[in-house]
Design goal:
The structure is a homodimer of 717-residue chains. In chain A, the strands form three sheets. An eight-stranded parallel sheet of chain A has the order 12-11-10-9-8-7-14-13, with helices on one face. In chain A, strands 2-1-3-5-4-6 form a six-stranded mixed sheet. The N and C termini of chain A lie far apart (57 Å). The longest helix of chain A is centred in the last third of the chain and has 33 residues. Chain A has 717 residues and is α/β, with parallel strands linked by helices. In chain A, 39% of the residues lie in helices and 10% in strands. Chains A and B meet through helix 1, helix 3, helix 8 and helix 22 of A and helix 1, helix 3, helix 8 and helix 22 of B.
């Protein structure tokens, strides 16, 4: 009787868990292991924990996470012991666990760097044990998250010998959060930072955010927008920022700020921000000293200068290197670094945007101080659904580059479309630059800076906000996760990462795992198909960057610069005979893009301008192929819906419904993209739709007049 | 062995629950009943549930909540039966539960109105049973929440006979949410409405918000700000609003919108919004028809007209009644109502704001259509920490009035200060207007309209937003809860409500309950003491309405109109000899306020202008008394801190820390208020601080120059 009550309570608790799948827990969703034999095994190995006492915040965070994870995954807390011999699980830095230095796996430990860790299991001192160790508490923290992940993803804990060092040193999130709480290009609510109550009141979310980031190895967060306000450097704002630094420190995360280049004028009362002016240099040095007095482990600055209206050194006839080096000099005594963005876009017409970043920065190679990164975006335009890799990668051997990815889906359907970006990241990272012969992938280029310059970096613009599930779209969580995992190891396979995420977020059963992975694998190509196929780009809505607007045409920004559509042809000639963008790549990439014969069709209209009747590999004309891609994209969203529907009853109703309703939304927007673009281009091609393509429900005017926010009800009905 | 594992799992689940006290669950925090004998009893009575099948959304919501609650509180779901005889718990509308009409407690059932319910327990058909019944599914829903509350607060379920009907018909929340996602005077993040994704994507929070509101009887939500945008009435926005209506409907909540008076011009292309123009009247009728075609159970309009720059009927020489009646006429065929705000503030100098609302609306008494409410705020100025009741209550017998309270703490420390507003609400509601002799409390005035006009209403401006705990300050939840409970029954005791809330939110143990109740009971008077004691008002910061600014002085708004401080005196003469505000109240209230001898000291400077050496009941001079209040307020915050600290280890660490850190913050701001005000007034009184009052740490200039957001670090150290 009593026992059955307990059973019922147990069930109740499980059901209770089932009921609360809001997505808030992210992938740190420690649910009881449902495989009984595995559970028994995990419990045995985790029965008694030897975790030597420490006063370190980071070790305490590691321990708290370990116990939290165990409690959920194993349904019980391990016993604790202060005697090593009693422990089945040993966790601690190596010089405490093995004070004599005599370690059976000593060689492995010696291979660790300050953030690395070792997870080992086997017979030790006459007993079966698991050891999680590292040189530092930070490494230990990462090791604990990895150890929990092994159980979350139902791996065996027998005969482990996991040695992990991060392959890049600075693994950054660049928040585009404004100080008024809005987030530029954010689609998941508002900024997580509650500036009004900082530094005193630390929201629960700060810690949960730090936990999530530490679990994937993020170690730096830029708090505010690259379109900066000088006041973020004012003393009272620095004090507020110190509250976030305090919340993140136990999780190995440093805070960084953007630096508005004109701050010496706005805050310092100077009449110039000229980097060659000694008063300006002195102002920055004093400011940096002040920052470190308030935030002793401050990370450094991220700067957007002379781009989209931001002030910069060119205002004074100086170079980007002059500007960056001034800040680098101020930060150097404290170990801080500068991330200087290579995205320099001046809203000028008649200049091919694709070539400007390279042309601006390539000549400066070697002129930057050793604590300065130049930070290009992944591609040469601006976070389009598909871009070839930025030619600066492989083009600046003497300057450490940080690669900037966007996790927020500015041009990928905001938080309304299911698009797994892991595959996009992988596509860039595994692109071969041939900078030092075959195999010089973008990933290798980034990693090599560690050897040549002692520093290396990658940055992501996050997709998080105040939404209960953090990212608006539940699958946005996967993009955050994937970015972090690739920041740790840029050579990981995107679908391996996806599998980890699905296992931790949804289920380890094949009937859930396989369909979701299929969905994720196809999602990005699907998005490209219904928005900007065959290398088309930058034809999205001017204001929102969502929805089609190939017809946008004003003096500041015309989509016609990007598609150059006429009755004869479409696409931009960026070959040797055109703007010469292909020439910015090393041979043989250069030749491959330059020649119509070898240029991948996915970049066709990016590099080439072609007549409507040009024949593609399929044998179809360019027009027919273009239209087919648009229709294929919409059909694929239909397939994605079907795949998702197959999960009904296999996952919790709450998350099932969330995603199902967004897939409906996505399908409508996909049709809007398709019909708007096809009708627009048809005005020029003056060709019929290929056979089998059902004509759009409305005329072009209709699609051009859809207001924001869109009235979808009654549309396609 | 197995059994102990299960026990551990059980503990694990409990611990798991303990770990997640973010505050998101509000008072619907269904934790296992920890009193074993009570738990046994509850389980016995809830063992088998007879809940006749129904297709109603509201009954389904009731059932889902019942089962969710049981699962948490009792750790098990009840068995279900379709045979009444087998059920220990009967839940259903009365004509289904008792089709023959032969009910032992039939008289009680006949006393129910369409939202009322009966909870009865005893022997029925030969067995001990609990019955929850109502005339409608909506009543049933409210009954289920009440039934769960009985268990949440550990009441006996034996011999129950709870008969509840709401005492007011329209129990409204007035969201001041802008369409861009910001919230006017909101301090808990941003708007809950995700307009971009509506109507398709329904966030989890919509349902949880509806649940919380239904649990306290809220039945109407105005979605958008009284400072309105016409576009909320545009078709595409109405379609979006319908998504929220769909989400709220199962919980008995209707949606309302604000109506911008100039909408016929802005949306309809007319050249006027004159309520006497037939085209304008026709436009509103058509618009209302359109609204009901999209939202069939639309509630009606809330209007702010000719106030703070909003357009209104006076722009055309018409009266408020003319404007309101036009909208009332359009809504009448559909059963909709109009709430017409009596807060008419024109930023004029040399007019006493305290008398304007009454003077504007009193002459219109009896001129409004029967589906129009006039809606004054609780007091005649503007949601100050303490105001006497608005003289329109008791002053407009022929016009149904809705009372507007603020739940958001615009002038009560935002979400940074712990201030329980239940006592403020009670103070207003229990104020005796003497409109029909003694006992004509504001509460009775509101309720009487139900008898005289068939409608009655109350409204609250909520304090909710995207913050994980909904209200920013955890104790803000109590104010939302208290408003709802008082909307259902305006004669409830504020501290009874507080006890319910603490029991459901924190704990039923006396060692937790008593200190928290003590804290809540003292909190509002404490706030008054350190900000605006003795009837002072409207001396807060001009822009933020937080922090002191008695020195604010510009042509639009000068604090000097409100305190009129000079070297001789302070306060505003609003007696017969002054602006005559006292004369707007019925005898004897009028006389009590008018005479210095009887005017409560808490309203002293509200109604009277007095010399600095005026002697109060304490024997102290006005100056000394004023200063003592300020110092007392700060000392009381210290006491509140001590009380809270006594809870360490008795509640979860997460919520303990949240509140503890905000009390620190509150103490600093209390000192800022005290020191800023005392130094400012001292310039005029030119008197020393009373003995024992430590002088402020800085000079007045310092307090006057504190920027927003404030740099508190290094302050008072």
């Amino acid at each position: 009787m009593k026992r059955s009550i307990i059973c019922l309570i147990f069930l109740g608790c499980l059901l209770g868990n089932m009921a609360a799948e809001s997505g808030y827990e992210l992938w740190l969703r420690y649910r009881l292991v449902d495989d009984m034999s595995l559970l028994d095994n995990y419990r045995k190995l985790n029965a008694v924990c030897y975790f030597p006492k420490t006063t370190s915040e980071q070790a305490s965070a590691a321990k708290a996470e370990l116990f939290r994870g165990m409690e959920g995954l194993l349904g019980k807390l391990p016993a604790e012991t202060s005697a090593p011999d009693g422990g089945t699980l040993w966790i601690g830095v190596s010089h405490v666990l093995f004070p004599s230095g005599d370690i059976p796996f000593g060689e492995k430990v010696r291979a660790l760097n300050e953030e690395g860790y070792l997870i080992w299991s086997g017979r030790l001192n006459g007993k079966q044990r698991v050891v999680v160790t590292a040189l530092t508490d930070r490494g230990l923290l990462y090791g604990v998250f990895h150890y929990l992940r092994l159980m979350q993803t139902r791996q065996s804990l027998d005969d482990l010998c996991v040695v992990e060092n991060p392959k890049l040193k600075y693994r950054m999130l660049n928040h585009w959060d404004n100080l008024d709480g809005t987030v530029e290009r954010g689609y998941a609510g508002y900024s997580l930072w509650n500036w009004e109550r900082l530094p005193f009141y630390k929201e629960t979310r700060y810690t949960d955010y730090a936990r999530a980031n530490a679990s994937i190895g993020i170690n730096g967060i830029v708090l505010n927008n690259v379109n900066a306000q000088a006041k973020s450097l004012r003393r009272d704002w620095l004090v507020k920022a110190s509250g976030l630094a305090d919340a993140f420190r136990p999780y190995g995360i440093r805070v960084y700020l953007t630096a508005k280049f004109s701050a010496p004028k706005e805050l310092g009362g100077l009449d110039t921000a000229n980097p060659k002016d000694s008063r300006v240099r002195a102002w920055w040095k004093e400011k940096v000293e002040e920052i470190y007095s308030i935030i002793p482990d401050f990370g450094g600055f991220l700067v957007k200068a002379n781009s989209e209206g931001q002030p910069g050194p060119q205002d004074y006839g100086c170079t980007h290197a002059d500007g960056a080096n001034m800040l680098g000099e101020a930060l150097e005594p404290y170990g801080g670094v500068v991330f200087w963005r290579a995205f320099v876009y001046q809203n000028e017409r008649h200049v091919d945007r694709v070539v400007t970043g390279y042309n601006e920065f390539k000549p400066l190679d070697g002129q930057f101080r050793k604590n300065v990164f130049v930070q290009p975006k992944n591609g040469p335009i601006d976070f389009q659904p598909r871009e070839p890799f930025h030619p600066l990668f492989g083009g600046m051997p003497r300057t450490p580059l940080a690669l900037e990815f966007q996790i927020t889906q500015e041009n990928l359907g905001h938080a309304g479309h299911l698009v797994y970006l892991g595959t996009l990241y992988e596509e860039t990272l595994q692109s071969d630059t041939y900078a030092c012969g075959q195999g010089s992938t973008v990933s290798k280029v980034l990693q090599d800076y560690q050897r040549t310059h002692g520093i290396s970096a990658i940055a992501g613009v996050p997709n998080v906000g105040t939404d209960l599930n953090w990212t608006g779209h539940l699958f946005g969580q996967a993009n955050w996760y994937a970015f972090g995992r690739l920041a740790w190891n840029p050579d990981m396979c995107a679908m391996t990462i996806a599998e980890e995420w699905v296992r931790m977020t949804f289920s380890n059963t094949q009937e859930v795992l396989n369909p979701i992975l299929k969905l994720m694998a196809m999602s990005r190509e699907t998005y490209v198909n219904y928005t900007m196929p065959l290398g088309l780009n930058h034809i999205m809505n001017y204001a929102t960057h969502n929805g089609p607007e190939p017809w946008h045409d004003d003096p500041v920004w015309t989509a016609f610069d990007y598609h150059k559509v006429t009755t004869d042809s479409i696409g931009v000639d960026r070959t040797d005979g055109g703007s010469g963008a292909t020439g910015q790549y090393h041979t043989p990439v250069c030749d491959r893009f330059n020649s119509l014969r070898t240029c991948p069709e996915s970049y066709l209209l990016w590099f080439h301008r072609l007549p409507w009747d040009y024949r593609l590999a399929s044998g179809k004309t360019l027009w027919d192929e273009l239209v087919s891609h648009y229709y294929k994209g919409v059909a694929e969203v239909g397939q994605m819906k079907n795949i998702w529907h197959s999960l009904e009853g296999k996952i919790d109703l709450e998350r099932y419904n969330q995603v199902a309703s967004l897939l409906e939304y996505q399908e409508r927007e996909a049709m809007w993209w398709r019909d708007g673009c096809v009708l627009f281009f048809q005005q020029y091609s003056q060709r019929p739709l290929p056979e089998g393509c059902q004509p759009p429900a409305h005329d072009l005017k209709y699609y051009q007049s859809i207001p924001f926010p869109y009235d979808w009800k009654g549309y396609y009905d």
